[in-house]
Write a structure and sequence with these properties.
single chain, alpha/beta, Aspartate Aminotransferase, domain 2, 4-stranded mixed sheet, 14 helices, 16 strands, binds pyridoxal-5'-phosphate
């Protein structure tokens, strides 16, 4: 039986009031569109504070958090080591615009963790990392074309806000007003996991392709895994044609494994972009890779890239403390166990209710797609029953379970979750499924 999307504001008068105020002040009342509940209806929950696995809203409601700030909070909220590191850093000042040893510390941790990174530069967001990596790939190769894949998100970089053109393997079209056709004519948009299309693009444009940027495990159309053949083709074709392979691990870095998705897949990209977890909840991004490529950046090379707050002491301290904890007391086995338990429970709940679905998971990121087909690219992902997802989301939210507010996002389990949390979630999902 289909129910109406539950009216959210009833239990959240303070959030509703806060949203009304925000709507007068900021476009859509938010500073990043994913927060606006546009895909699920209702009024967003305004957060007062967070602790461990929980978010608390302005009305004092408590939610089990499966967003973790959209990825960064792998240790849960306010892990003591990060809080202490931040307090220590704060007592020494917040920004200098001159080098600090903490930056070398974080750079060393990144280089130690990610096998393909020999040198790294710190920036302040994932978007900055991908934007800079693409510029560097173009500067290094002296070529213009970049390949990206439908359903992969690399931040709001103009040349990557591109949708597939009318026929496959054609040059892209802007996916946002304000992105010029001049910008997007240098971006080719292909279907993820489509080896034939990739080979075709290289056979036609090979000598003009500067690089290929991709999510090694996609999180931004929901979780989608690459095939082994796709990974091999990416590496082979870029090598053969003198293009750079850019692994966008802003989401997967330190998430699916300490060494990132590339360590699981046996991939050796030329450049890697990082963000989210690398800042431990503060604004940090990074891009790194082959030293000979990285040395094309100013002040050694000629490719311009700079940042007033790059390597910011507070952000760097949070990043260092997070990576240190992930290395010294790795949560990955525990995350795998908890996540497998959640996966099995969600599957069972959907099956019991006869709800057509596919569940995809890599480590602690997973997506329950309301589509029974295997999801290998945006072609299938785009066919999900998003109305059904919205009802599922709203039911869970009203039960105090905060899932990502879009079908096309990954949920994240954190080290602060415990088995009881997972079981509570499965029980609530079972109830939700019965109403769909
Ligand atoms: C989140 C994300 C970005 C953008 O990072 P921001 O910090 O939001 O700019 C880029 N690439 C991937 C794969 C992401 O998940």
């Amino acid at each position: 039986m289909k129910s109406e999307t539950p009216a959210l504001p009833t239990k959240r008068p303070a959030s509703t009031a806060a949203f009304e105020r925000a709507l007068r002040l900021m476009p859509g009342g938010v500073n990043s569109p994913a927060r606006a509940f546009g895909a699920v209806g209702g009024s967003p929950v305004f957060i007062d504070r967070a602790d461990g696995a929980y978010l608390f809203d302005l009305d004092g409601n408590r939610y089990l958090d499966y967003i973790g700030s959209w990825g960064p909070q792998i240790l849960g909220h306010r892990p003591p080591a990060v809080v202490e590191a931040l307090e220590r850093a704060l007592s020494r000042g917040t920004s200098y615009g001159a080098p600090t040893e903490a930056e070398s510390e974080l750079a060393e941790q990144i280089i130690d963790a990610v096998a393909s990174i020999e040198k790294v530069r710190l920036v302040s967001s994932g978007t900055e990392a991908t934007m800079s990596a693409v510029r560097l790939a173009r500067g290094f190769t002296g070529r213009d074309l970049i390949i990206k894949f439908s359903g992969n998100y690399h931040g709001h970089v103009d040349s990557l806000l591109v949708a597939a053109g009318s026929s496959a393997a054609t040059l892209g079209a802007p996916s946002s007003p304000g992105v010029t056709s001049g910008t997007t004519k240098d971006t080719l948009v292909l279907e993820y996991n489509d080896v034939a299309e990739l080979a075709q693009a290289f056979s036609v444009h090979g000598s003009q392709i500067a690089g290929v940027i991709f999510e090694p495990v996609v999180g931004n159309m929901g979780v989608v895994k690459p095939s082994e053949e796709f990974c091999q083709s990416l590496r082979q074709l870029t090598r053969e044609h003198g293009a750079l392979l850019i692994c966008d691990e802003v989401m997967t870095g330190f998430r699916v494994a300490f060494g990132g998705a590339q360590s699981l897949l046996g991939l050796e990209p030329d450049l890697t972009t990082l963000g989210k977890i690398v800042g431990g909840g503060l604004p940090v991004g990074a891009y790194g890779g082959r030293a000979d490529v990285m040395d094309h950046i100013l002040p050694v090379g000629q490719v311009f890239q700079a940042g007033t707050l790059s390597g910011n002491p507070l952000a760097t301290a949070a990043g260092c403390a997070t990576l240190k904890q992930l290395k010294e007391t790795p949560p990955y086995e525990r995350l795998e166990k908890l996540s497998a338990r959640l996966e099995a429970g969600l599957r069972k709940a959907a099956e019991a209710a006869g709800v057509p679905h596919t569940l995809a998971r890599v480590g602690s990121m997973m997506t329950l797609f309301f589509n029974p087909e295997p999801i290998v690219s945006w072609r299938e992902a785009s066919q999900c029953d998003t109305d059904r997802f919205a009802r599922y989301f709203c039911h869970l939210l009203d039960r105090g379970i905060y899932m990502p507010c879009s079908q096309y996002e990954a949920l994240f389990v954190s080290a602060a979750h415990c088995e009881d949390d997972i079981d509570e979630t499965i029980a609530a999902a079972g109830e939700a499924m019965q109403t769909l």
